């Protein structure tokens, strides 16, 4: 399927991750495809045999997947936990077969911590699938595979390394570890500004001071959380405008029928309105994000 181009330069905080993948995966693969590796001989760089892309949910792993898919095009294959209903070995076997047929290629295994949770594997769950994956990872590392030109780089994405079996991530099977991180305050400001500008209209007028205030109050929030703040601000704006329109239609009566429309929010300027919308969205989302983090930490305590 066609993949929408992703310009990672427009996603604040992702450049370090992308640079590592460009150096250790994308560039060596492109050399293989265009014949440069053959000219360089033994000096040609080889793609990392196995890669772990890890970090909290919402920190850009899906964006990186889309970026790689666009860069590598037909050389990129994806396998997710949702790809199978119990007979996962055969679905994974099929994806590996297609990746090997297109080699050199990259196979992206998403949510590997869901597929191969160490507790599940220890009790025999996904046993065939797990053994198949280990066999393929060991086979990829063999010199005969490289000599045949069937080089497949496996990139596995997960949220929490602690719940993966050691056998899966030991040295020799994994050569590159790439971490996606929660953005710092400055990066959060850039993320908010990016999405506010893309929304356009009133929200694009949000002042830097308001953005900085929200960014400083969202320590430990993810990229996805910041995107959600802007989406919620857009929804609040749409609600206020619909409420005002209905009030005019109903003769200066608000949507509830009891409150005069004159008590609807009033702002000195569109910029003030945009500032207020962003802060409202942040306040409304704050409790939910904190509740999610609480239950996530509680679950991890029993993992």
How would you characterize the largest beta sheet?
5 strands, parallel
Q: Remind me, CATH topology of the largest domain?
A: Rossmann fold
CATH domain class name of the largest domain = Alpha Beta
Radius of gyration: 24 Å
Report the CATH architecture of the largest domain: 3-Layer(aba) Sandwich
Q: Count the domains.
A: 2
Secondary structure tally, helices: 13
Broad structural category: alpha/beta
What is the average of the pLDDT values?
A: 79
Number of strands: 5
GO molecular function: ATP binding; ATP hydrolysis activity
InterPro entries: 26S_Proteasome_ATPase, AAA+_ATPase, ATPase_AAA_core, P-loop_NTPase
Protein name: AAA+ ATPase domain-containing protein
Domain AAA+ ATPase: 47-182
Chain-wise SSE layout:
Blueprint (H helix, E strand, L loop, with lengths): L14 H20 L1 H5 L9 E5 L6 H12 L3 E4 L8 H14 L3 E5 L2 H4 L2 H5 L4 H14 L2 H5 L4 E7 L7 H4 L6 E4 L5 H15 L8 H9 L6 H27 L20 H32 L2
Parallel strand pairs: 1-4, 1-5, 2-3, 3-4
Helix pairs in contact: 1-3, 4-7, 10-11, 10-12, 12-13
What features would you describe in this structure?
By secondary structure, the chain is α/β, with parallel strands linked by helices. It has two domains: 8-179, Rossmann fold (3-Layer(aba) Sandwich), CATH 3.40.50; 185-301. It is built from 13 helices and five strands. The protein has helices at residues 15-34, 36-40, 61-72, 88-101, 112-115, 118-122, 127-140, 143-147, 166-169, 185-199, 208-216, 223-249, 270-301; strands at residues 50-54, 76-79, 105-109, 152-158, 176-179. Strands 2-3-4-1-5 form a five-stranded parallel sheet, sandwiched between helices. Helix 12 (223-249) packs across helix 13. Residues 298-303 have low confidence and may be disordered.
């Amino acid at each position: 399927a066609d993949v929408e181009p992703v310009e990672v330069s427009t996603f604040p905080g992702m450049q370090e991750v992308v640079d590592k993948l460009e150096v250790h995966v994308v560039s060596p693969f492109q050399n293989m495809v265009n014949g440069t590796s053959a000219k360089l001989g033994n000096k040609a760089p080889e793609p990392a045999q196995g890669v772990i892309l890890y970090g909290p949910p919402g920190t850009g792993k899906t964006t990186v997947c889309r970026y790689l898919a666009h860069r590598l095009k037909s050389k990129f294959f994806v396998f997710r936990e949702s790809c199978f209903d119990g007979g996962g070995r055969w679905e994974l076997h099929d994806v590996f077969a297609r990746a090997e047929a297109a080699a050199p290629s990259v196979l992206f295994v998403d949510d590997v911590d869901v597929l191969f949770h160490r507790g599940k594997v220890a009790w025999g769950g996904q046993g065939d699938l797990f053994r198949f994956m280990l066999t393929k990872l060991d086979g990829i590392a063999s010199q005969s595979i490289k000599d045949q030109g069937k080089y497949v780089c496996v990139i596995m994405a997960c949220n929490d390394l602690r719940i993966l079996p050691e056998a899966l991530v030991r040295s020799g099977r994994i050569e590159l570890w790439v971490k996606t991180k929660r953005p710092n305050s400055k990066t959060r400001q850039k993320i908010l500004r990016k999405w506010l500008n893309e929304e356009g209209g009133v929200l694009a007028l949000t002042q830097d001071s308001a953005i900085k205030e929200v960014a400083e109050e969202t320590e430990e929030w993810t990229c996805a959380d910041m995107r959600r703040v802007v989406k919620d601000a857009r929804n609040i704006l749409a609600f206020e405008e619909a409420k005002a329109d209905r009030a005019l239609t109903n003769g200066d009566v608000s949507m509830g029928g009891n409150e005069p429309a004159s008590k609807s929010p009033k702002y000195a300027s569109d910029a003030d309105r945009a500032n207020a919308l962003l802060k409202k969205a942040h306040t409304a989302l704050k409790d939910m994000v904190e509740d999610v983090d609480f239950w996530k930490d509680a679950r991890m305590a029993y993992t």
